[in-house]
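Appendix B. Chain record.
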Amino acid sequence: MSKRSCEAAESIEDTNLRMARVNGRRMQKRSVRIALRRNGRMSLLRLDGTYCFLHRAVPFSLQCAFRMIKCKERDYSREVFYMNKRYLSMTAVFTAAALLLAPLSGIEAQAAPAAAAQAAYVSELTGLPTSIALQTQRPVAVMIDNDTKALPHYGLSEADVVYEMMNSTANKRVTRLMAIYKDWQNVGQIGNVRSTRPTNILLASEWNAILIHDGGPFYNNPYFKSTGISHLSGGFSRVKNGKAQEFTEYVLKNDIAKQVTTAAIPSTYTNPAAMNHWKIGATNLSAKAGNIPANLVQLNCFRLTKPYLSYNAKTGTYDYYENKKLAKDGEDKKAPSFANVILQNCTFTQYDKNGYLIYNVIGQGAGWYITGGKAIPIMWAKASETGITHYYDLSGAEITLNPGKTYIGICPSDDWTSVTVS
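Structure tokens predicted for this chain:
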């Protein structure tokens, strides 16, 4: 059998033999990946030399997908998986979410929205099965207001990755959110939409994302030019919500698609390297050097709303709070919740007395990676304007994120000591 594919078991006896070798034992390298479903229980075997045990599921590896064949005998069915990089076609009806049903730090809850896809690939943003129709579609990065007057957010609970960072040194260092969506055409309402800053241009560029915003200071202009980022500024829908005009602009369904077409912006990746943004796989920090408990993450570095993330043991994710209460999406009433939390200690440069600034995200610094109720100290590094930010543990190895949504807080260095993880 080759690395890229493997022969199907030729007989039921051969399949039974392979299954018998699973119970608590490491599999032979390159052995067939098989899921056995019996009485509603399922186990999964890895192709690439790693392994799991009966009735424990392992999520898809990043950028790998699988082709499935279903064969029946008596009262149960077996699924034999073929490894095939990047592409997936299913010849049997078996939803992708079944691979995430067994508890893995509770993160399986985030797999449900993608479960209905009968043809899927593994999202480069979340590591979860996603419709294959979206595979080459570029994500969008939407600038969302986080002023208390702008609340509640709309569409934030549906974002795959959410950045939070200081937007200005004025107004108690008010933050702004940049929400990244892969399946942006199926989100009903996002916003409200506000202006962008140079830091957002640098971070959105590493995803090859289309930046969605409404204007911004002239400090943006050199970065628009040097990064070549695709962006759409203003002209989105206005929603009557009784607020001042600056709080009424939202992205509604079809808004982005229409503007992308009008502006002749490619909706598919122009930089395929962005499809390998970070490593995703089953991760348990308990054995990692320097790990500490992480049930509460307090971000007092963001002075206005003082957000925090609280670990939800039932879901295995971190629920987002601000202004001393659980944030609830204005569209679906769900709280933004994240399998992964990344915090970056980052210096910044203030441009003028109005509070405009740029974070010094090109460079390196310290931080935290938090998942599953544990945290480890990390280092982050970004080499260029469009280069990907990489995160490393104390051994110098690049970290692996758990499948699911990710929150990234860019905390100003002069307030880093106010960040607490406990």
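Further analysis of this model is presented in Appendix C.
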